[in-house]
Amino acid sequence: MGGPGEGWVRIGDSSLPAGGILGTTLADEDLVIWRSMAGTPCVAEARCPHQWSHLAGEGAVDGEELVCLTHLWRFTVDGEGWKENVSGRRDRKGDLAVKPCVERDGGIWVQVRG
Ligand code: FES
Question: What spacing in Å lies between the alpha carbon of 61 and ligand 1's midpoint?
Fold first, then answer.
């Protein structure tokens, strides 16, 4: 058993629970690892594209999205940025860069080169 192969790096552990968020760095890049409530692992840049809040500290998982609690922009597992108002209307916002990731052999892996 092993990882997904050459070009992939183990960045986290499968013990990360649904709704969990962790900050980490990879080659000087600040990243967050988070898991949606349905169990999808995600790896993304750590800084909110709005005003740069660090999502390991200011983020919260809401269903299948990572919410920046500073001004409530929210990001899908694919990194699409949205803001939702109190009546449920959703407007497109800036995206969060995500890294290809898979879960394998008890770990969460990101692709560092193709
Ligand atoms: S800094 Fe994240 S929503 Fe404003």
Answer: 14
- Whose CA is closest to atom 3 on ligand 1? 71
Tell whether pTM > 0.85.
yes
Structure tokens at 111: 């692709």
* Class in CATH terms, 8-111: mainly beta
The pLDDT tens digits of the residues spanning 63-104 come to 999 999 999 999 999 999 999 998 999 999 999 999 999 999
Question: Which residues lie with the beta carbon below 6 Å from any ligand 1 atom?
Answer: 48, 50-51, 53, 68, 70-71, 73
Domain spans of the chain?
A: 8-111
Task: Tell me which residue has its CA closest to atom 4 in ligand 1.
Answer: 71
How high is the pLDDT of residue 55?
98
